[in-house]
Amino acid sequence: MSRPRATGPLRTARLLTAAAAVLSVPYWLPRSVVAARVALFARINGDEGIAFPNADVPADRFQEIYSHPAANGRSRGAALSDLFWYWLAPGAEVHQEHLEDGPRYDEVARTTLAVLAGPSQELSAAVARRTAAVLDELVTGRAAFVRLRDVMMPVWAEFFHGLVFREPCPPRVRRLIVDNAADVIDSLKCTRPRHLARRDRLTRHLRRRIAAGDVPPDHLPDSLTPGEQAYYLQGTFFNTAVVQMSEAMAHLLLVLAQHPDEQRKLAAAPDDERYFANVLNETLRLYPLFGVAHRISTDDIPLGPDTVIPAGSVLCFNYPDYHATGYRAPDVFDPARWDRLVAKRQHHIPFGVAANRPCPAWRLAPLAMHAATREVLRRFTLHSDVAHTRSIPHRAPCLLVRRGRPLPPHRLLAARAFLRVRDRWEDVWRSCAQLVLGTWMVLDARRLRPAERYFAAHDTQGVPLPAGTAGAARCPYPHT
């Protein structure tokens, strides 16, 4: 017996319902997939970490625990380290962020500071030159749709190459650095799988330059082998430095694109250091570059008369949660609040804390970002209505319009609407890709166990353990 055909009104209602369901996908699917990814990662990784702030350690005590001398383990003894070593390969064992305390770290840290040192005016001028050259090369015409992170990455590739080698960066080498940095950050965000072949090309280039004596001697830690020195340069300057500065600039420029009043003020007074500092402080408060920093306690950390964090605990310091406490209207972008506040007295640690390895670029980064921002605003106005999250997996889509050649209002409105709609729909496939790729990489890291295997064969200073004693490394701290 055949089913009766739907009447006209019923067919219309069904079509409208189906259309509404399809059109609503960008509004509910990405959030659902993100929630599923978080739950799945927690299930895979287990609950080894203690998150801060928490009920026992409120935000007011966050820096106290972060700064505690016993909160100084970096990699050894945490399953979470395997995942970060997997993402930062090759050479995670000599990455400055993951080296354990001791003479090797001390020498590496001194070397990094020596590379980053220099007169402020010279550093700012170098950033300005490279920003101007890259912008003039990559962005031509009256207006252009760009991904802000992609535009800024070549700037920092050239800048840090100049600091390390004290010479201009050839286009081919810039491509090697950008490919390496982009692969690292895309895999960290789970938007693409890692491609070690891309990273290895840069490693081989650095090894050749070191072997040829092209790197100034004071830019290479003597205690590292030539292979480790290549990994040090790659991980510190052409991975972390390029990635973090590109991400920071993407956040800053996207904030300006979405807050035209602040953009106009900054463009009108490009040398106003106080106002730029306010904008930067507020940007990094809302969008800290670190999500969670993990440390391993090397001794008991007392919380009170009868409560301690035991040695060997994995401490997970949540920057976004911490930065959201202690402020009036914490979700509102308000640079003017910093006219009333002193940054060092607030819940605000964009470069870490002085007592626990602050970012070595804490002095360089603000002045370099100011120089780059001046060059961008000198050339363009910025416009974007895309979602702005801390991780910016979309790489910060934006419309750049040549200053002095504005678009007609209707074209600008249409361009902004295009960015907004495209971002919504890209988020659908991107969130699904992050779920699949993230799950696969977490499982692959657990299979490979790079940090655990390294410390099963080496001590905390990278010295191979005597034969027959490697198994002892499974206990991260012998006294516990």
Could you provide a short overview of the structure?
With 480 residues, the chain is mainly α.
Characterization of the model:
The chain has 480 residues and is mostly helical. 55% of the residues lie in helices and 8% in strands. The strands form three sheets. The chain has a three-stranded mixed β-sheet with strand order 1-6-3. β4 (301-304) and β5 (307-309) form a beta hairpin. α5 packs parallel to α13 (364-379), α7 crosses α9 (226-258) and α8 (196-211) packs across α9. It is globular, with a radius of gyration of 24 Å. The model is unreliable at 471-480 (pLDDT under 50).
- Average pLDDT rating: 90
> Helical content, roughly?
40-55%
Percentage of residues in strands: 5-15%
What is the count of DSSP helices, taking H or I runs of 4+ residues? 15
Q: Segments where pLDDT lies below 50 for 5+ residues?
A: 471-480
Shape: globular
Quaternary state of the chains: single chain
- Radius of gyration over C-alpha positions, nearest whole angstrom: 24 Å
Going across the biggest sheet, name each strand in turn.
Answer: 1-6-3
Derived from helix and strand composition plus strand pairing, the structural class reads mainly alpha
* Largest sheet features: 3 strands, mixed
Distance between the termini: 77 Å
Order of SSEs: HEHHHHEHHHHHHEEEEHHEEHH
Count of β-strands: 8
Essential attributes:
globular, three-stranded antiparallel sheet, 55% helix, disordered C terminus, 15 helices, three-stranded mixed sheet, mainly alpha, 480 residues
